[in-house]
Amino acid sequence: MTEQTETQQRPALVVDFGAQYAQLIARRVREAGVYSEIVPHTATAEEIAAKNPVALILSGGPSSVYEEGAPQLDPAVFELGVPTLGICYGFQYMAQTLGGEVAHTGLREYGATDAHIPATDSTLLAGQPAEQNVWMSHGDQVSRAPEGFDVLATTDATKVAAFANEGRKLYGVQWHPEVKHSDHGQAIIENFLHRGAGLPADWNSDNVIAEQIERIREQVGDARVISALSGGVDSAVSTALVHKAIGDQLTAVFVDHGLLRKGEREQVEKDYVESTGVRLITVDAVDTFLGHLEGVTDPETKRKIIGREFIRAFEQVQRDLVEEAKATGGAPVKFLVQGTLYPDVVESGGGAGTANIKSHHNVGGLPDDLDFELVEPLRALFKDEVRAIGRELGIPEAIVGRQPFPGPGLGIRIIGEVTLERLEILREADAIAREELTKAGLDETIWQCPVVLLADVRSVGVQGDGRTYGHPIVLRPVSSEDAMTADWTRLPYDVLAKISNRITNEVREVNRVVLDVTSKPPATIEWE
Ligand code: XMP
């Protein structure tokens, strides 16, 4: 497996102090047109300098700087001469480390808070209103700014709510500019990057595509490459990107396990292939998968069977391609494309290796011992960036805009045994829900909406002049930033009514539609 850095671009580095803010900050930085990466706070000044950063942002953290075991950062980082912005805990850490004072005043500020900004011509707060609503979450306060720093903002509880040392290009804010509840948060991040650090807004999908194409060509040379298409966004975009780089050296493989949503196979085989020109092999494995799933109700067992059969099908294609290469004297098949995204890289320790991709997100769970080197052109990217690149590459919107969908597919959205008949019921219900949500313009509002068939539950209903004994369908619309936590989406009643009416009218075996109104935690997004 080759080690790679994420891109050749010099990054703005977000130092992660351990709360959940670092990824959000990294995304906001990219929204400002500047490439960003995340490093743990345990990185030394030397390691940070080695990444050649154009700016540093110290994230918030869970704790007080006085707490035992509070996260630390090598103080030499402040001597690197790199423009730095401290946020919340990062701001307090900066204040304390550079000789200011952080006090335990007992005055806490949580949630929406009024910030007062006496002068709105500073680099950091230029163009900001003098009074604004910001999002706070802190116990301690910076009570005195370090020498050489100007105080830029206060709140009723905090004498020093933002500061700057223009000479050293060091800045800090007590509030969280990365959250949308801070009224002018993004403008602060942009001021820091563009005015403070003097960085242009030049990170965009065109650059990413051009750079990745060059890297892919360099990595694979003349060898052949295969890619497993799942129908999902990540594999669709990574495959298209690799195809753009090396054309028919790439073969894409699509395993139809019968657990797909309505129309998905056709979208991949027809629309995707037409728009990208990819050479595609579809493996029709519906009977095999359903045969192995017969009588199985336990979700973990289902997952294992689906994963195992996926690998078998894929390995068969691999063997065929290797044989074909031998027979025709073609170049050997040496590489495998994976749609690993940046959050996977960060969550698995941020290492350059990829051995520890979460198997959860590794569709079908390809095993480590496949004899391939990985090509991972999306390793530096967040989901929204992947979508932007997919659109740029001309992948149909129906694929690029698709909601997250689990690798084991509808297999885990049928509670009970998976059979062809039940899959047909769920496919119809799911298609109706998706169609109505799209029609109502709600695709941007919801993160995903699993539609679940409670196949082992039946209840009495009445239709026409007869009693029915049908299954319930569960709608599980959720809003989320990253699927780690989620809330149930408050869909308009008329949309819910429309979906419910259509499903019960058009899908004969369903006589109830119910709505899941649980957040995650305590529930998960998927039912299984
Ligand atoms: P849960 O149900 O754990 O789901 O809250 C979190 C997110 O992960 C998706 N999910 C999967 N994605 N393979 C995948 O590629 C899987 O096996 C899998 N299981 C759950 C789920 O749809 C949600 O977005």
UniProtKB/TrEMBL annotation:
Q: Where's the active site on this chain?
A: C88, H176, E178
Please tell me whether the keyword Cell membrane is annotated for this protein.
no
Matching entries from PROSITE patterns are given as: GATASE_TYPE_1 (PS51273), GMPS_ATP_PPASE (PS51553)
What reaction does this enzyme carry out catalytically?
A: XMP + L-glutamine + ATP + H2O = GMP + L-glutamate + AMP + diphosphate + 2 H(+)
Q: Give the keywords, sorted.
A: ATP-binding, Glutamine amidotransferase, GMP biosynthesis, Ligase, Nucleotide-binding, Purine biosynthesis
Q: What is its EC number?
A: 6.3.5.2
The pathway it acts in is:
Purine metabolism; GMP biosynthesis; GMP from XMP (L-Gln route): step 1/1
Subunit and interaction comment: Homodimer.
Explain the purpose of this protein.
Answer: Catalyzes the synthesis of GMP from XMP.
* Name used for this protein in its record: GMP synthase [glutamine-hydrolyzing]
